Amino acid sequence: MAVRQQAEQYSVAACRQAIRRHVRQLRRHLAASERDLAASQLAEQVLNQPGIMAKQHVAVYLANDAELATGPLIQALWQAGKQIYLPVLHPFCPGYLLFLHYQQTTQLQPNRFGIPEPELNCARVMPIAALDIIFTPLVAFDENGNRLGMGGGFYDRTLSQLPADSACQVIGLAHNCQQVENIPTESWDIPLQQLITPAQYFDFR
């Protein structure tokens, strides 16, 4: 039985890795003009969601590895008077994220993955349970809201800290091409509540 379970686990891991490679390649092949248009369309999609625009404290990521860019979205949210927060690698708890207040004057520096993030300042940390919305990057998603990340587990570990009765909305952002038929899940995976692509809004609740 143990051997069978181990084989099944390996099969799931191999399948997830194959999906990860395929979809990352798809989004990397998007032309610069397609990426720019997608980023603008994403901002429009978000602005058209009253349930999102009624919130105030919003965590967003900065794109890496051809992820759906969030520059226009961040600018639109600032113009709408929202408070924006960016993820920062936790300095004391490896594998976890903190969220720091992000303003137009905030200085950014690359983390160990080369992703820009604010310099750590404890006074600017927003507790995860106090956030209204967390926009998350991802590699792939399916029609059931299953999310496949880069494999580091940073968002899964961090989101697991949200209280069961939390009102925080976790919303994935992805290019249209990142939808797949089915993602094999692991025990630690946290399904998305909502997801937005440049073309569509998904509600999995």
Characterization of the model:
By secondary structure, the protein is of the alpha/beta class. It has helices at residues 2-28, 32-47, 50-53, 71-79, 154-159, and strands spanning 57-59, 83-89, 97-102, 108-110, 116-118, 133-136, 140-141, 147-148, 169-173, 194-196, 201-203. It has one domain: 3-Layer(aba) Sandwich (Rossmann fold). It has 5 helices and 11 strands; from the N terminus they run αααβαβββββββαβββ. A hairpin with a 5-residue loop joins strand 7 and strand 8. Helix 2 packs parallel to helix 4 (71-79). The longest helix is centred in the N-terminal third of the chain and has 27 residues, at 2-28. The model is unreliable at 1-7 (pLDDT under 50).
Write the layout of secondary structure elements.
Blueprint: H1 2-28, H2 32-47, H3 50-53, E1 57-59, H4 71-79, E2 83-89, E3 97-102, E4 108-110, E5 116-118, E6 133-136, E7 140-141, E8 147-148, H5 154-159, E9 169-173, E10 194-196, E11 201-203
Parallel strand pairs: 1-2, 1-6, 6-9, 9-10
Antiparallel strand pairs: 2-3, 4-5, 7-8, 10-11
User: Shape from CA axes?
Assistant: globular
CATH superfamily: NagB/RpiA/CoA transferase-like
Radius of gyration: 17 Å
State the distance separating the first and last CA atoms: 35 Å
The low-confidence runs, each spanning 5 or more residues with pLDDT under 50, are 1-7
**Approximately how much helix is present in the residues?**
25-40%
Helix-strand makeup class: alpha/beta
Strand content: 15-25%
Number of domains: 1
Provide the CATH architecture.
3-Layer(aba) Sandwich
CATH topology: Rossmann fold
Please state how the strands of the largest beta sheet are arranged side by side. Answer: 3-2-1-6-9-10-11
Total helices: the number is: 5
